[in-house]
Amino acid sequence: MSLSAFDNLRATHPDRLDAITAIERHITRTLRRDPHAVIDDAILWQQIREDRVRADLELTRRLLVELETLHALQRRLFWLCPIGLGTAFEAADADEFPTEIECERCGREHALRAADVEVKFTPSEALLREVHGAPPQQ
Amino acid sequence: MPTNQELLNLLVRRLAEARAKSRLEELLRQSRDEQALPRRAFRTSGTLEALTGAVQLAAEKGALTVEMLARVVDEVEENGAQHIYLFDLTDEGVELMRSDSLLEAFPDLPARPTPAMYAELPATTRTYVSQRENGIVVVKQIFKASYWEKDEDKSYEHANERATVTVRRERRAINLVKINPGLRQAEIRVDRVRGQQDDVLARDLLMQFRESLEDVLDIDKHFTPTPIWDGFRRIVADVEGTYMSTDSAQDPSVVVHISNRRESDRGADVRTHDSYQYDSADYTRNSLNIYWRKPHDPEQKIHTILSRVDYGDATPYAKVYVAARLTADDLSHVLERIRQSARDAS
Questions:
Q1: Shortest CB distance from B246 goes to which of A33, A38, A86?
Q2: Cα-based distances in Å from A13 to A9, A16, A41, A99
Q3: Region of residue A86 (left: phi > 0; alpha: psi -120 to 50; beta: else)
Q4: What kind and span of H or E run contains B189?
């Protein structure tokens, strides 16, 4: 069973069926394991290259952005602990970031620096419902 | 002599500073319900200004007193936003508590709150003693703490020049020693003062505090640090009762760090990840970043950072850092679970 947002994507990009299906398979597998997981363009790109699917990082990102437009993904900004202990704060928009934060990961206070912020995606509720309703993909 | 109104306003400001507006709202609701007053009698939510007015109204109607409000301020200031050092009483410590020397060494906490006790910046350091339920003795110090901090507004980075300006900040702070002779337990709670875990400041404040008490209380003689690190593995193994968003451990060959990718407690517990294998006896930790699930509401979690800190004494100290303000019951519950984990391991 395929996911509706990916069906739409396949209809729009009939020349990219391999990449779209590979991304769908990896996102589904990831979210079945952990519904709170981050959808990371770099990881997906690596995964689909392992599948011998021809796609560059730019295409991977473009498809993820389109999945956002189709309400399957949500863009999320992650403010990483500069000491390297994971995400200190996350938000849908940069305006939500305070200028300083007390980091629960290391206990210290960090000032906001663009270098510590990365933009990734999280699944929408609709996508999660579909993933958990659908039978496992091979 | 301050008026009731001035004292009430002072206490409300202390709660606001401690970001404990919800506790004030809770007190107002309780006071109104206990007096069976109509809902319109006074507000129980709103802005700080609205709540200050509500407190005055509640006092006029006899639903709320300065003492009631002071009790809430005390609970807020004494529980959380602290570095908590855990100890067990030595035989000498038990002996000390059998005598009245600690109780006689400091004045009792005044029965009626005074403006000096709740001043924004206390003019002098005041140390009081009080005897509480179950024979617990608390020595409480109210003082003005200071620390240096970078001034972001005055610091700058230009093309050919950069400067960092640090300024001295001052703020009200509370330290306390809590001794439970019945259980042979003690805690030193040091105000975190700053909005972050500043270990150097914590150490300095601890040393100043213990020095100020040394005429009657010798920490090295009367207390011995509770070896909470013995319980770290048991805490890691308690997947049901705790939550971990990050873990750092080491074996003889490698140091490992594992963190989930979501903020706070939003992501998956790292211990549920396929690659997690750091709960065996091969791995050791100097600190543990852990959330404690509340027993009656497991979705609610209390965050702590436990660590073994070496201040150059013979035995390292056992420190529990708690950033949030908690209720006395919640904090006692967490500290007891930490102690229990250490006891179970020994």
A1: A86
A2: 6, 5, 19, 41
A3: left
A4: strand B185-191
Contact (CB<8Å) B196/A109: yes
C-alpha span between B223 and B184 (Å, rounded): 9
| DSSP-derived secondary structure letter, B274 | T
Q: Does B41 touch chain A (CB under 8 A)?
A: no
* CB within 8 Å: B303 and A34: no
What sign has the CA pseudo-torsion A52, A57, A59, A62?
A: positive
Cβ proximity of B22 and B16 under 8 Å: no
Predicted TM-score (pTM) of the model is: 0.90
Structural tokens at position B240: 């049901």
Q: What is the pLDDT of residues B96-116, one digit of tens each?
A: 999 989 999 999 998 889 999
CB-nearest to A105 from B266, B273, B289 is B289
Rounded Cα gap, residues B48 and B312, in angstroms: 45
Residue with tokens 């602990």: A81
> What is residue B226's DSSP assignment?
-
| All residues at 6 or more sequence positions from B26 whose CB lies less than 8 Å from its CB, including other chains | none
Is B125 in a helix, a strand, or coil? coil
CA dist B181 and B298 (Å) reads 31
Contact A90 B263 (CB under 8 A): yes
Q: How many other CB atoms are found less than 10 A from the CB of residue B330?
A: 18
Contact yes or no for A79/A88 (Cβ under 8 A) = yes
3 state SS for chain A: CCCHHHHHHHHHCHHHHHHHHHHHHHHHHHHHHCCCCCECHHHHHHHHHHCCCCCCHHHHHHHHHHHHHCCCEEEEEEEECCCCCCEEEEECCHHHCCCEEECCCCCCEEECCHHHEEEEEEECHHHHHHHHHCCCCC
Report whether pLDDT(A138) > 60: no
3-class secondary structure for B103-115? HHHCCECCCCCCC
Average per-residue pLDDT in chain B? 93
pLDDT in tens, A32-86: 999 999 999 999 999 999 999 989 999 999 999 999 999 999 999 999 999 888 9
Residue type, B280: S
Residue pair B213/B177 in contact by the 8 Å Cβ criterion: yes
Is A94:A117 a contact under the CB 8 Å cutoff?
A: yes
Helix (H, G, I), strand (E, B) or coil at B316: coil
**Burial status of residue B46 (CB atoms within 10 A of its CB: 0-12, 13-18, 19 or more):** middle
- What is the largest distance, in Å, between two alpha-carbon atoms of chain A? 50
Q: Do B169 and B201 form a contact (C-beta atoms < 8 A)? A: no
CB count within 10 Å of CB B151 equals: 12
